[in-house]
């Protein structure tokens, strides 16, 4: 059985989630689990409710993943609401990374996200992972509830860590280097079955238009 688990922010106005659910027609799965908010329009899904703090993304993430690590299925494929499967696939993507974590952090040249990755690299190095990899891919990730629980021990101490990179390294996932598929602004639509958007690119740019045209019909998961 393949459960697709979504981490869902507050609010019913979530067209990215609606179209991500529609895109699941292209990936074999058995059921959908929403962790966090349950939009009024969503149906035929399982739900783990989590109270979320307004405007505190990191605290919300810890709450959401803690709930999933305690009450989620033994194994699941984790989706963000801005992940889209654009063409048929046999299953979720293979394990992929963006190279050495510290080198990826340096390429970002500062900023809040770069600082988070530097902090993550330091924490991993302190517990023996000096060659940590960057699992900061905007694609679905197959996860184990038990192993996620181990990762959350670190996240509860320091929410300002990259949970994907913590999970990937602590669980010895390995994998192959690959390019990310996140498109935050204007630009050509990425090729391949997987695309990730930002709020702006989904609403205003070609990638969002391509997704809406590709999935115009309601899915079994919406009213």
Q: Which terms would index this structure?
A:
223 residues, alpha/beta, five-stranded mixed sheet, 17% strand, globular
Radius of gyration: 17 Å
Calculate the terminal CA-CA distance, rounded to whole Å.
25 Å
Number of discrete helical segments: 8
Query: Could you give the order of the helices and strands?
Result: EHEEHEEEHHEHHEEEHH
Largest sheet: 5 strands, mixed
Strand order of the largest sheet: 3-2-1-4-7
Structural class given helices, strands, pairing? Answer: alpha/beta
Chain-averaged pLDDT: 95
Task: Kindly state the percentage of residues in helix.
Answer: 25-40%
Overall shape: globular
How many extended strands?
A: 10
Estimate what percentage of residues fall within beta strands. Answer: 15-25%
| Low-pLDDT runs | none
